[in-house]
Amino acid sequence: MRVSASVRAGTLVAPGGSRRGTSPARPRGVFALKPIGTSPAFYRKPEPAEKPKSTVARLFGGGEQKARIAQLEYELETERAHSSDLGAKLREAEGRLAKAEDSLELYKSRCKEQEKEIFALEAQLVEKESAFATGMSVAKRQIKLLEGMLEEEKKRGGGTE
Fold this sequence. Notes:
Helix content: 55-70%
Distance between the termini: 154 Å
Number of domains: 2
Structural class: mainly alpha
Shape: rod-shaped
Radius of gyration: 52 Å
Mean pLDDT: 77
Number of strands: 2
Strand order of the largest sheet: 1-2
Low-confidence stretches: 1-9
């Protein structure tokens, strides 16, 4: 099959088409006013798979099947809506899980740093407590020494009076 077209003043016109719909405001060039691919010459009607029912059967028959189909379509739509809701909830939960995992890593590192600081502070506390205990024992010995010296002075001073 051969398709022919005529060209008038830069316009492609398919067989069966006309130039009536063109306006001077359209740009000049080659274009089809009637699509060639959808021409009835190229369109083949599909053959029916089975013999169509009579008009009466189509109008009044098959009510149970139509009702069942409508019910199944409704169920399908509700399940799709439910599925999309669950998908949205899953994405939200996964987002919260990712944030929680990020926070977990952050808090783990902070916890390790805090543990190191706690051990360092405990070591300083033990050192200060031992230094305090040493200072207290030195102070007690000096107090005893001073008390002993005071007693001696009292004995000497009491005998000269």
